[in-house]
Amino acid sequence: MPKGKHKGGRRHFTNFEALEEQKKKEEKERQWRREQGETDSEEEEEEGKSSGSEESSSEEESGSEEETKEQKAKGVSNLIETQNPNRVVAKPKKVAAISVAATGGGKPQLSRREREEIEKQRATAHYRKMHAEGKTEEARADLARLALIRQQREEAAKKKEEERKAKEEAAAAKKEQLAKVLNKKKS
Hints:
By secondary structure, the protein is an all-alpha fold. The protein has helices at 16-36, 41-70, 95-104, 112-133, 137-186. The protein is rod-shaped.
């Protein structure tokens, strides 16, 4: 494809300034006709309908023009006016809406991740508390295991104590027997 050609022919951009000038000329022409009395009653009705809509649209345009002037366009975008239905224009918020939002949401607005993190911390703290009180299944299992271990250790300690006493008694009995045998030999 040769350079400079676009699918289907030349590109055509509407000039915003030219449109504004055309609207002004039409309005002057209507006023001149009204002054001359050359308009028909049908044209007046149409003009009344269109002028009412133009006034409301002109008010909207003036509001949007002020907004666009406040937002400085970068590059050539301020030279070329385009109508993009997907373009989102940041509208200034009303003071009443801001104050309602500020007073209505007493807590600061947190992101989803922050809320999840806080909820996770609360859940872990609650679980630790319940675990310390012995109200969780894991805590009950741990306490049961500890009770078994304590019981086994107590039994092992008693058994060792009995064995020690038995050894001492055996040693004492052996001494007595030795003492008796030695006393008999001496006598």
